[in-house]
Design brief:
3 domains; 15 helices
Amino acid sequence: MTSRISALTELDPLSVPLPHGTEVTLRVERLLNGRRVPQGLVGRVVRARDGGFDVLVTGVGELWYARTELAPRRAGQLEYAHRREAAWQSLFPCRVLEATVGSRAWGLSDETSDTDVRGAFALPFSWTGGLAEPPTELISADGSSTYWELRKLVDQALRADPNTFELLFVPSVHALDELGQWVLDARQAFVSKLLFGSFGRYALSQLNKLSASQRLAEHRDVVLGWLEEEPAPSLEEVGRRLAAVSPRSAPTQADGEHQARLYLKQLYRSLWDQGLLPSNDFKGLTEYARSGGRRPPDARSLRPKNAYNLLRLIELARGWLATGTPVFEATGEFRERLLAIKRGERSLDDVLAEAEAMSPSLEAARDASTLPEQPDFEKADALLKRIANELARRHVLHVPGPWSG
């Protein structure tokens, strides 16, 4: 353990990137609206901007800091950031596929939208041997660009992973190397009726997130108000109160109180994930409620961004199964409905009702689809072998380029 920790002394905490979500320690004092924000507090990086970072500090808000004014909070974060940056610098030249994805590919972007890039890279032959496990993905420090190693991409495509299919079939995809063109030429081999289940599961995950957000918002402000009382009520007391007002039925009072305590755990974990709590527990929730700090959006104005993605995924899968061709860009009246969701003009209940109404047409498209039942595993196997042989050839012959070393 000692040698492992001491090895980190070679890593300068101020020289590695700070990816989105990294917990950091503030190295300087700040003033925000006349309020002193001392050094030593812990915050969480929310975005890179103007050569520095916006950092969310619990109970304070967002403040901008230069890179030299922040240090990763944990040694493990420092080590991870160093490895991620080293992999990015070494393997970024080995990209073979690239595409713009997300809202800009869906026809749903506006002036505030980020540009999300996804792609694939090939591991040089020299990286495939030895004890070290090579990276299977590259992620930029700001999280906007992600590249998968080709073997990982093929494995995901055989499962009809929606994000992988978006990379392979979105109109903006282009090959950066002959290897990438081979993948594009073989991409139809991955398409099958499995996309009904994979896209459906992905859409279901969006639905679960929406439902969880709605549940958490229902009594959130009530709970935070209770925790401001003097003295602050205990977890058990808040659970009893919540069970008494919750519309969710339970077989017994004990079951209702148990459900209420599970809700409270979901609540403080959600707020912790947003960087709002000093600790991921009920104590942290109590401190946050009594701090007078920034509150999350009101439940009535809560519009999770995955709401319109739920409908988009269902429609994409339906059209692909029905016609054999994917259409990623939303158009016409359907696009206007999605943009209305994005602007917060439609209720969550309305979105969920529309998703439910779309389900029968999705099932009908699957039943009538001419797509094969399974992907073509033989073609996928042949593709990977062809790529491996080519990478070995470039290595042995020292072909100029990033794969010959």
